[in-house]
Amino acid sequence: MGSALETLCGQAYGAGQVEMLGVYMQRSWVILNSTALILSFLYIFAGSILRGIGQEPEIASAAGKFALWMIPQLFAYAANFPIAKFLQAQSKVMVMAAIAGAVLVMHCLLSWLLMLKLGWGMAGAAVALNASWWVMVVAQLVYIFGGACGRAWSGFSFEAFRNLWGFVRLSIASAVMLCLEIWYFMVLILFAGYLKNPKVSVDGLSICMNMLGWAVMVAFGSNAATSVRVSNELGAAHPRTAKFAIVVVVISSFALGVFISIILLVFRRQYPSAFTSSTDVKKLVYELTPLLATSIVINNVQPVLSGVAIGAGWQALVAYVNVGCYYIFGVPLGLILGYKLDLGVKGIWYGMLSGTVLQTLILFWMIYKTNWNKEASIAVDRIRKWGGHSKDHVRHA
């Protein structure tokens, strides 16, 4: 839901309406914290829900306990994501990187102390995650409240409570678009829990999903950079610059994905040992590595295209594309290959990867066919609608 700010803050900043950024962030805080309160009930009853849909009792119980411990992180997310979009729109990325780097060091030390040295196990992991996220939130707020953002932050305002319903609609469209993408690969692990050997399948897929997550972190950074650059340039009525930025970041992300995939394929016998001592799990990860490598290449490009969609404000349209490609095409195909044709984990992954490829091709086509001059005009109208004061020289820049 916080990605709604990528569109609004980015375009407002590009148009010179800097004072609106703080208001947008506060509106998002109101909406996201209210949503987090509702979502906390899913965390509270996670164990029962997982057992109710047929997951193995041991897995469901462990996940349920961990979800309870992770409730504080949920509210840290609600505070952090609007802050991140607020800072990204102003290209204040280095301070975010510095804070995140310091917190990462703290997190590693805290995880080692609580999980290994003190033997707290999963509870220690939860405490470390909760503490790390909240330290990051507080550090960023200190930076913002200290005056480093100039006119973008002028203090708390009742303006944050104006036009909340309209803001909710855009936030929901953003959430649907991104959640459908994120849940798509998370559901792989859920489906693995129903296979003949669920523990090995879940362990193997969890390792692969960790590798995929780490590998595409740079792509997620490109996603944010692309959405900021596209929204800034559209807000400033520079459509050609927006197009050029898209071409550069797509080529760069594709090349990086190929490079990472080659490294994984070369070391496919070695890297599973960093995660597990189980021979069966290592064997499964070895067999899944070619699929993982292909997924990394595709998923290094796909987030960049999603970033273009966010920067241009296409969240609702892309949400429909995601429903069709992922859940009407990809998931059913994966279930047929995995269960009906008895291909197991590989079959499920083949089907779902096919859905990602289809979605990526459609986004390519949408971007190629877009009239970017028209998108720049739409951006000016959007800024006026959400409380900015459009200037004639911006429209005709």
Structure commentary:
It is found in: Membrane. One of its GO terms (molecular function) is xenobiotic transmembrane transporter activity. The protein has 397 residues and is mainly α. It is built from 16 helices and no strands. The protein has helices at 4-14, 20-44, 46-52, 57-69, 71-89, 93-117, 122-148, 164-192, 198-215, 217-235, 239-266, 279-312, 315-340, 344-369, 372-385, 392-395.
Compute the number of helices. 16
Low-pLDDT runs: 389-397
**How far apart are the first and last residues' alpha carbons, in Å?**
31 Å
Mean pLDDT: 84
Morphology call: globular
Specify Rg, calculated over alpha carbons.
22 Å
Report on the biggest sheet: none
Structural class: mainly alpha
Question: What is the assembly state of the chains in this entry?
Answer: single chain
Written as H for each helix and E for each strand, in order along the chain, the element string is: HHHHHHHHHHHHHHHH
Number-wise, the strands total 0
Give the strand content.
under 5%
- Bin the helical content: over 70%
Family: Belongs to the multi antimicrobial extrusion (MATE) (TC 2.A.66.1) family.
Membrane topology: Multi-pass membrane protein
InterPro entries: MATE_euk (IPR045069), MATE_fam (IPR002528)
Keywords: Membrane, Transmembrane, Transmembrane helix
